Structure formats: C-alpha cells, structure tokens
C-alpha cells in the first residue's frame, strides 16, 4: 500500500525523462535514430553523467516549452544551453554510430546497408504489429494489487497513446511476509490467461483507445488509434513473448527499436511529462511519413501498481473503471464462485430460522432473492505481520486501524445492522478450525479473546472448504485463484464487509460506492487506498460526526424471562419514544441471552443488540451485595446489584467494536420528546464548522498526541447537570453522555483497574459509576488557606451537554426538551404512589417528590410515559 518517498519518485522520474528525452530530441529535428538499444544501467550513467538527477526534469521541461532551441542545437549549433548541448552531442554520437553501421532508416548510406539475416527479417515482420510507442507492464503482490497494476498500466497506455504489452505470467502466491525475503518465496507463476479473460479485455481496451483518441483528432497519436490501420491496444500471451523476442533481436542489432527501462515504483508525478513527450514523439513519427517504417520506442515500466493517480475529478477515473468492467476472470473462477453461491442459497432457510430465534423477521428480498453477505476477514499470519510493520511506519500518514475489531467482528456486524437471517460467506485464508482458534493480542487485538465462536453462533456461516475440495497448500500455491473466487462472491453480495487497510477490501468498497451498493469496513477508520491512489470525491472513512447518531444504552437482565420489572418497562418507553421522535440508531448492550424474550423484543423493535457480559460482572455484584446498610443509603442503586451492574455496563461500550467516534449514551430511565442530532448537541454553527474541519479517521482534528477531543468536542465525554441546572463539571450527571469512543477506548484498561481497586465502589466525587467517571477523568487542583489548610479539588474533564438533553421531571415544563430523564423517582414505583396516596417508597426521594408536586412536570410526563408503555 505504500508509495515511494518523494526523493525516490523524483529520481525515477528524472531518469525516465532523461532517457526518453534523448530519443525524442531526434524526432524533433526531423531525424531518426535507428537500431538503438539502451540498457537501464547505461541510461542511468548517461543521465547522471550529463546533467545530474535534478537537471533532467528542467531540461525536458524546456524542451517541451521551446523545441526550436533544440533544433538550433542540431542544425545551427547556436543553442546556449550547455546541458542541452551535452545531450545533443550524446544523441549525435549514437546517430553517427548508427550511420556507421548502416542501420539507419534511409537517411544516407542506404545503398551500403547489409542484408538482414532471416532472423532479423522475421523479427522485423513481427515488429509491424507494434505501435510506434509501446509500454511493457508487470504485476506484483496479491490479486487486487495485480488487478490495479493491470488497470493503471493500460490506462497509462490509453492516455499516452501507447500500445501495452501485458505480462505473460502472474504470481498465484502474492503473499507478503515482512520478515521473509521475497526472493526466497515460491510465487507459483502462472500464465495471465489462467486468471483473466484477455480476449474480453482486448476488445474493451481497443474500443476505449478508439473512443479516447477519436475525440482528440488534433493530436498526432489519433492517426495511430483513430485512423488507418487499427492495431490491437494490447499484446498478451504468445504475442507478448514473440514481440519481446523480436525486440531483443533487433535491439541487439540496433535495428529500428529504442528500448528503455523505467524502474518500478510510483510514477504518477511524471505523467504530465510523458504526455508532452508522446506528443513530440508522434509529431516526429508524422514527420517521417506515418507509422510505416517509423522507429519504435518501448518503455518497460515494470510493475505499474499505483503508477497513475486515479481521481474521480479527472478523466483517469472513468478510464480506470471502464477498463475494470472489461477485466473479467476466466471461466474456472466463475464456476467455483457459482458453486459457493449455490451452497449459500441452500443455507437461506437455516439462516432465517436461526435469526428468528433472536427476534429477527425474515430479511426483505433483493432482486427477488434472499442473497448473501460477504465478510472479508484478515487474520492470517501474513496479515498480522504486515499490520505490525504497517502500523510501525513513521511517514506522516495516520495509521491506527489495521487489526481493529478482528475479534469483535460479530459486534460490528450486529451494531451496523447486518442481518443474521442472510447467509454469511467469510472470505479468508483460514479454515473453520483456524478461525475458531485464532488469537490476536497486544495493541492490535483484543486480549483474552480466543476464536470467533460468537460469529458462528449468531450468523449462518459458509467457507470455501464447505464447497470446494481444497488442496492442503491452497492458501499459498493457489492463493490468488481463490482470492478471485472471493472477489466474484463479494461483488455479488448484498452487503460487503471488509478490512479497509487491505487492498482487496478497499478496492471492492470503492467499486461498490460507485454503484451505491452497501459496504462497510469492520476495522473502522480510513481507507488508505481511497486516500492516496484510487480517490473518490466522497470520503469513505467513518465520519467523525456520523449522522444519524448511535444511541447506546445498557441493560442487565438477571432473569431473562422476566419482562415486567420497572427497569424493563422504562427501557421499552425509551426505545419506543426514540423510534417515534428521532432517527437515532438504537444499540443495546445487554447481558440477556440472544434467545431471551427481552432480547427478542428489542430486536423486534429495531434495536441493534450486542450480547455481552463483562468478565468483571460477578466481582461487581459481590461487592454490591457486601455493602453495609449505611453505604446502601448513599444511592438508590447501591442496594440493587442488578441495577448497579446495568449502569456499570456503560464502561464497556468503547471496547465492544462500535465503529463510531462518538455515541450518545443514556440510562434506560429516559423518554425522548424531540429530535436529537449534531445540530442539537453542538449547535448549527459549531456543527457546520467541525464537520468540515474534523476527521479523526485520517488524523485530522486530533491533538499532537493522537488524542481525540478538540475545540467543542469532548476529550472524554460530555454531560449535563444533575439536580440543579449548572454548567459546572463537578455537578454533572452521567445519565446522558456523549462518549468520545477513541479516548475512552484508549483509557479503558486504566479506568477498569481504577474501579476495581476500590473495595467500596465509592470515590471522592461520589458513589457508583458516575462517581468513578468524575473521579478518574478529572484534574486535581490544590489550594491552601489559613482557616482550612490544604484543600484538594477534583474537577471532571467533561464538556457540557445542553440542559434539554437531560431534562429532569422535577424541573418546570420545557417544550424544547429533547430527552426527559426520570432521575431519581420513577413513575411506577415513586411518582404515581406519591400523587395518589402521598406515599414515599424511598425516603431519599422525598424532597424531590415535593419539588415535583410544587414546580415540576413529573405528573404530565408520567402520563406521556404510560401512553408509550400502553402502546408498546
């Protein structure tokens, strides 16, 4: 995925321009050098010896701008550019050498030309099929990188008006192991036509050449590609081999061929120079009377991966994707893909039956069929090694997502709405047994998680091995063939899910973007291929301010069959009101099993459910149960282990695989009374400014240390006030929070350890999870006074949420409130008994209930609450 350094690109560009300049200067003067062959090492030595590395670009630019100067150098010897004179002298020396060998194209001494041998005659006849300007390309790395190299190489040919010699072979094992020298690996080279239908590509490319150059009738190259004898755009297979043999024969004899090698690497910066060069070249060909008998220049470009800037704002985009439409896999690939598709179709009923036990209705048909989804999962050893190397690069690019969420991919699918009732094909180099045992730890993985068993339990999964009789070495010897099968399956899927750092996934995501087909990347963050090499107008990274927002809540259910308790009823009201009043994407983190009535109800009401019980759950329950009577009086949650676990579940939200940079978290005791979006949270002006200037996925808007949270976005979380309306951070209430997922994920381990280092679950800033947040995420200040002595103050590091997003029932009526928080007293157990019988069920709520009766809006809000409950 990496391009060369700027210095490396400049050196390669200058060397290429220097060599090409030497050839083109001949044609500019109406002369022709015949029978030349310049080896790569010779070209480099000439370039460096004559004008140095940087001078070549300057010289060639001046040549394009002022061709008359070069003609005067040849004819009148009046050119004052010393470097240009040196080049001209070199070219004239080659020309004189050609004349001495009597191998020119008819400019003097033609009568003395030696008769060619039969081998040369055959080679010259073969050369008739070669366009005046041609490029030879190669492919490298894995399947998609090879595909990109082919497409960009041919696209360069289109733009330059150059015929393209395709590679004869391609590696069927393109694996890259950073710790193993590539030269020691068996690449299993196979003929290119073993993978691709080259006849179909030829037809499409030739049509594209004609369309491209017939629109440019004033360009000299149009005479080759739009008028007269129509050469094929591509040479491949035996034709490439025969042409290479002919060029080799004539090159050795210095007959009518100039062959230049251009080292592999990024070449896109030289495109404008090459375009100018080809105009000069074809003008020279025209001066000689056309293609017939003209010299041939062949540029050997090596692997053309990332050799062209493919940008949706330029013509290169349409050329690239038009060629991609014609680059089809051969029949064996399609046959294998068809067999897998048939197997996936046979799994539809089983998938829908399994999903129904979780509460999912049958998914809607797509094109009259249920279809299937594809997950491209990268967890193989070579990928893990690649990620370590890739993440370790220090080249100024933002890198933080190579292996993210691999072990949590089931949560990504659920939270992004991928339906378990649709069969899921996993495109991977691992077997089912290997997937069940995979373990990824450290900064790239999820410590303690082994295997992907939840993925198999929640989804109906198919693998290659279920259909295809795989050879034991298929993952290496036939790696790219089966990658092609995966490619065909991915293109036909309902939803494609991949790893955005992988070229394979990235290419498919970009292609599906063009056709408005759903796709996502489970690792979150950016898509390097789309940032630097194949660039759509729209960013395909996960937006920092994603819209619509995800609303996340947590629900602990001790008895999964009990759906009548107070907290469950409040959950139902929260879900129903959010669905009616907002476009928030509801996500519930619950300890309830997938087949429980609670989980089924949530799924049936459009909630995306993540099934999760923390490893620390039992320890937390034990600590709550061991509290003394006095401790339990500090909070109404302190006496309820299940409620305490439910509210502490929120600390898990950042590490469960959600792709969003920010989510809105609420307790379950809320009711939505109005629309909630970024305009409401930040205000329209701030939202508009931040939307255009902040992109965490690409490192834009992060602080120098890579921490999220700048300007009006929270460093860790935002919250509103608790009992009284106050903007002071010390008086915040954690019932409604805007969570900075990146920052909280990075600090999760330390926060969890901090929580369980306390035996009482009480902290200086208060009890429970709210006290933990306010204490851990805080700044400490120390003051001193003679009367009080040393005084330490903890100030939470929290941004402010508008009061309307955490409006209390005991505050006065506010028709602009968006989220009502039943903070403290609940309708069923406290407010209605107090209203009807003046009964105080919990003494700690007595003052609040009195405020509610005198000044609050709790009675009206409870009526609205029960209307939702009755209608749910």
Description:
- InterPro entries: Nucleotide-diphossugar_trans.
- It comes from Phaeomonas parva.
- This is Nucleotide-diphospho-sugar transferase domain-containing protein.
- The longest helix is centred in the N-terminal third of the chain and has 23 residues, at about 5-30.
- The chain folds into four domains: about 5-110 and about 120-175 and about 190-325, no CATH class; about 330-535, Rossmann fold (3-Layer(aba) Sandwich), CATH 3.40.50; about 550-805, Spore Coat Polysaccharide Biosynthesis Protein SpsA, Chain A (Alpha-Beta Complex); about 805-870, no CATH class.
- α1 crosses α5 (about 80-100), α6 (about 120-125) packs across α10 and α13 crosses α20 (about 480-490).
- About 45% of the residues are buried.
- The chain is elongated.
- The chain has about 850 residues and is α/β, with parallel strands linked by helices.
- The chain is about 45% helix and about 15% strand.
- α21 (about 505-515) links the parallel β12 (about 495-500) and β13 (about 520).
- Strands 17-16-15-18-21-20-26 form a seven-stranded mixed β-sheet, with helices on both faces. It has a five-stranded parallel β-sheet with strand order 5-2-1-7-6, sandwiched between helices.
Tell me briefly what this model is.
This protein is α/β, with parallel strands linked by helices. Helix content is 43%, strand content 13%. A seven-stranded mixed β-sheet has the order 17-16-15-18-21-20-26, sandwiched between helices. Strands 5-2-1-7-6 form a five-stranded parallel β-sheet, with helices on both faces.
């Amino acid at each position: 995925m990496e391009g060369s350094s700027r210095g490396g690109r400049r050196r390669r560009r200058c060397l290429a321009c220097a060599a090409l300049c030497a050839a083109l200067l001949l044609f500019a003067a109406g002369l022709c050098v015949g029978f030349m062959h310049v080896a790569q090492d010779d070209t480099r030595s000439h370039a460096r010896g004559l004008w140095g590395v940087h001078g070549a670009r300057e010289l060639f630019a001046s040549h394009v701008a002022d061709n008359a100067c070069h003609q005067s150098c040849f004819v009148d010897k009046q050119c004052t550019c010393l470097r240009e004179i040196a080049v001209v002298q070199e070219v004239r020396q080659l020309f004189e050498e050609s004349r001495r060998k009597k191998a020119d194209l008819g400019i003097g001494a033609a009568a003395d030309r030696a008769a060619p041998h039969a081998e040369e005659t055959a080679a010259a006849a073969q050369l008739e099929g070669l366009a005046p300007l041609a490029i030879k390309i190669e492919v490298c790395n894995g399947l998609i990188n090879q595909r990109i190299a082919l497409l960009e190489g041919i696209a360069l040919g289109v733009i330059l008006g150059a015929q393209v010699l395709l590679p004869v072979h391609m590696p069927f094992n393109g694996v890259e192991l950073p710790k193993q020298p590539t030269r020691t690996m068996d690449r299993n080279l196979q003929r290119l036509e073993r993978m691709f239908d080259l006849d179909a590509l030829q037809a499409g490319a030739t049509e594209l050449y004609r369309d491209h150059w017939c629109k440019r009738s004033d360009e000299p190259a149009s005479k080759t590609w739009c008028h007269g004898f129509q050469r094929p755009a591509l040479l491949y297979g035996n034709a490439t081999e025969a042409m290479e043999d002919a060029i080799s024969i004539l090159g050795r004899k210095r007959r009518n061929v100039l062959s230049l090698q251009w080292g592999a690497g990024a070449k896109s910066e030289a495109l404008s120079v090459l375009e100018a060069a080809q105009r000069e070249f074809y003008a020279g060909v025209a001066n000689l009377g056309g293609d017939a008998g003209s010299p041939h220049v062949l540029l050997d470009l090596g692997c053309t991966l990332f050799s062209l800037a493919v940008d949706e704002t330029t013509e290169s985009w349409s050329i690239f994707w038009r060629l991609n439409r014609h680059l089809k896999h051969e029949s064996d690939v399609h046959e294998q893909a068809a067999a897998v598709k048939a197997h996936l179709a046979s799994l539809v009923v089983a998938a829908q039956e399994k999903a129904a036990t979780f509460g999912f209705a049958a998914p809607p048909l797509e094109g009259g069929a249920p279809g299937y989804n594809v997950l491209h999962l990268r967890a193989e050893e070579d990928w893990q090694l690649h990620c370590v190397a890739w993440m370790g690069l220090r080249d100024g690019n933002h890198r933080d997502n190579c292996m993210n969420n691999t072990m949590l991919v089931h949560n990504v699918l659920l939270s992004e709405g991928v339906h378990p009732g649709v069969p899921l094909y996993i495109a991977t180099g691992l077997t089912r047994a290997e997937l069940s045992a995979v373990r990824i730890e450290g900064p790239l993985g999820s410590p303690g998680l082994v295997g992907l068993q939840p993925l198999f339990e929640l989804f109906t999964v198919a693998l290659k091995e279920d259909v295809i009789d795989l050879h034991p070495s298929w993952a290496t010897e036939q790696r790219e063939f089966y990658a092609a099968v995966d490619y065909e399956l991915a293109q036909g899927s309902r939803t494609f899910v991949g790893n955005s750092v992988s070229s394979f996934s990235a290419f498919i995501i970009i292609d599906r973007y063009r056709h408005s087909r759903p796709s996502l990347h489970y690792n979150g963050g950016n898509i390097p291929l789309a940032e630097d090499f194949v660039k759509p107008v729209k960013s395909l990274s996960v937006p920092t301010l994603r819209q619509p927002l995800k609303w996340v809540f947590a629900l602990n259910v001790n008895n999964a069959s009990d759906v009548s308790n107070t907290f469950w009823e409040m959950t139902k009201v929260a879900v129903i009101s959010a669905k009616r009043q907002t476009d928030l994407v509801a996500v519930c983190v619950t300890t309830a099993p997938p087949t429980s009535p609670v989980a089924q109800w949530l799924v049936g009401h459009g909630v995306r459910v993540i099934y999760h019980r923390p490893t620390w759950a039992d320890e937390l329950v034990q600590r709550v149960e061991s509290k003394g009577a006095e401790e339990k009086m500090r909070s109404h949650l302190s006496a309820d282990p299940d409620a305490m676990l439910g509210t502490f579940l929120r600390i898990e939200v950042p590490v469960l695989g959600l792709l969003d940079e920010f989510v809105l978290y609420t307790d379950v005791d809320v009711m939505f009374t109005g629309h909630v979006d970024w305009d409401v949270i930040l205000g329209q002006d701030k939202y508009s400014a931040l939307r255009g200037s902040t992109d965490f996925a690409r490192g834009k808007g992060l602080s120098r240390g890579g921490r999220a949270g700048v300007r009006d976005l929270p460093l860790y979380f935002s919250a509103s006030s608790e009992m009284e309306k106050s903007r002071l951070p010390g008086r915040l209430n954690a019932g409604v929070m805007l969570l900075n997922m990146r920052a909280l994920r990075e600090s999760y381990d330390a926060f969890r350890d901090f929580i369980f280092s306390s035996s009482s679950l009480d902290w200086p800033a208060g009890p429970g999870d709210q006290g933990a947040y306010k204490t851990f995420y805080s700044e400490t200040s120390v003051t001193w006074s003679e009367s009080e002595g040393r005084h330490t103050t903890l100030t939470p590091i929290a941004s402010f949420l508008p009061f309307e997003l955490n409006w209390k029932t005991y505050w006065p009526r506010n028709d602009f409130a968006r989220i009502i928080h039943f903070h403290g007293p609940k309708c069923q157990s406290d407010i209605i008994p107090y209203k009807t019988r003046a009964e105080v069920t919990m003494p700690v709520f007595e003052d609040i209930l009195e405020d509610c009766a005198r000044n609050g809006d709790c009675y009206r809000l409870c009526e609205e609450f029960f209307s939702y409950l009755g209608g749910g």
